Amino acid sequence: VLEAWYMDESTEDKRLPHKLHPNHPVSLQELQDVGVWYWKSCNSIHPSRLFYTGSQGSLEPIPGESGHKLNADIYEHDPELQKIREEKGYSYMDIIDVHPDKLPDYEDKLKTFYEEHLHLDDEIRYILDGRAYFDVRDKNDRWIRIAMRKGDMITLPAGIYHRFTMDETNYTKAMRLFVGEPVWKAYNRPADHFEIRRKSYTSDDV
Ligand code: KMT
Ligand code: NI
Question: What residues pack around ion ligand 2 (CB closer than 5 A)?
């Protein structure tokens, strides 16, 4: 099942869960309200399955056999991944192995990933192995932490403030997807002058 929660204010190790006490979980609907899509693989170790149902972009609990059933073990030739890529136009993909021996400038990159930033395009990640956290700001500017593990896919909408960190297991391998030629440019906060910040993801009563 989806694991997402509001974060505490502690400045302790970013790799820790940082849950509130008591925990304040965040639902799939609440994520969708800020424009984040999240879906899990059928091979997830979690019992509850959520399938991305396609064109409407909705996530629903197992609707019979319809929808996509990603399998991270066969990502190189997974027809379900292929279908999503075709439907969404994710023509570009590469794989980022976040490990000191595999990722050049490992420490610097992790530092950059954890700076609060936005992109002008969607950030689409599919976790092939290991685990990680994506943190996103809700409409009231509070941090939501999303736990990602093998088989999970996420789409952060263009313009949302977010950041990324490893968890205590210190390993993740992720597929990066993109519509067309990839643009990885990150704009650290404050970056509110962009048109994309006017449209959405900011407080409704502004
Ligand atoms: C980003 O821009 O936040 C990232 O690319 C996160 C790291 S993907 C493993
Ligand atoms: Ni980013």
Answer: 123
